[in-house]
Amino acid sequence: MMPTREQQTAHSLQESPLERPDSEIDRSNIPQADEESLWKPIDVARFLQVPISWVYESTRKRGNRRLPFFKVGMYLRFDPGEIREFAKKHFGRNCRLN
């Protein structure tokens, strides 16, 4: 016998045993970001004062105008020192993170 629509909806609304509210997640083992942390795309966009879409586009370019990056799994990450050097080389100034 097939479950009714109400039974399907009730089942889909049940909380997964792996899902917990943020207040219950132990974050004590996650280090805080510091000066030596890798940057996320939003950090690069803030530093260069450009839209985040520009950051993503610049990782897809080829040649010397491509932002230096690497992937951690599926996530883009950036070395702050390399981004500063990129800014000096391509924009001719020393940018500061606001």
Rg: 21 Å
Strand content: 5-15%
Question: Based on the structure, what is the oligomeric state of the protein chains?
Answer: single chain
pLDDT averaged over residues = 77
The helix-strand sequence is: HHHEEH
Structural class: mainly alpha
Query: Which descriptor suits the 3D outline?
Result: extended
Number of helices: 4
- Helical fraction equals 25-40%
Ranges where pLDDT stays below 50 over 5 or more residues in a row are none
Query: How far is it from the N-terminal to the C-terminal residue, by CA?
Result: 61 Å
- Per DSSP E runs of 2 or more residues, the count of β-strands stands at 2
* Largest beta-sheet characterization: 2 strands, antiparallel
Write a compact overview of the structure shown.
By secondary structure, the chain is mainly α.
What can you tell me about this protein's structure?
The chain is mainly α and 98 residues long. It has a domain of 63 residues. It is built from four helices and two strands, in the order H-H-H-E-E-H. The chain has a two-stranded antiparallel sheet. The longest helix has 12 residues. The radius of gyration is 21 Å and the shape is extended. 8% of the residues are buried.
Task: For this entry, give a set of tags.
mainly alpha, 98 residues
List the helices and strands and how they pair.
Blueprint: H1 5-13, H2 41-48, H3 52-60, E1 70-72, E2 75-77, H4 80-91
Antiparallel strand pairs: 1-2
Helix pairs in contact: 2-3
